[in-house]
Write a structure and sequence with these properties.
With 190 residues, the chain is an all-alpha fold. The chain is built from eleven helices and no strands. Helix 1 runs parallel beside helix 3 and helix 2 packs antiparallel against helix 3.
Length: 190
Amino acid sequence: MTEDIITGIQRKLEKHLRPERYRHTIGVMYTAASLSMCHKGNMEKAMLAGLLHDCGKEYSIKEQKRLCREYKIPLTESELKMPALIHAKLGTYLTEHEYSIEDSEVLNAITYHTTGKPDMTLLEKIIYIADYIEPGRIAIPVLDKVRYVAFSNIEEAVALSAGSTISYLKKMGRDIDPMTIKTYEYYTKK
């Protein structure tokens, strides 16, 4: 992969995403690159997955659902109840079909960037955490601790992030995706 591919995708996303979403995307891309360097991952794949992780999020929820039906992307009951999760699967589809990225590691990292999953690959953990800790992220519980821990123990960072997400959703009286719970349980037992 060359720098030209990443630059071309950046230009396309800058036209497609709202400015604040684009800034977040660039923040995730560079945070993923930093985490990748720290944990000896593949920096190009981390940058690519970070850059494309929210490419399906700019559409309204109604449009995301319509596109999933059109593209025959199966949605779980949880995703239908919690439509904020849908953009991950739609983004994976768009990454493959609109941005011509067929690397399964990159596609899986995009798929699981919102919920995580047990036994994630290094790239999946990097994108999950980079989305949580990127510099533009508003202050959320345990953010500073996750930022600190992410560069020394990424698995602990995953457990902290998932736990914080679960606590927040419980406090707000919102549904929690079962995969987020499984992620938390898996990484707190490690």
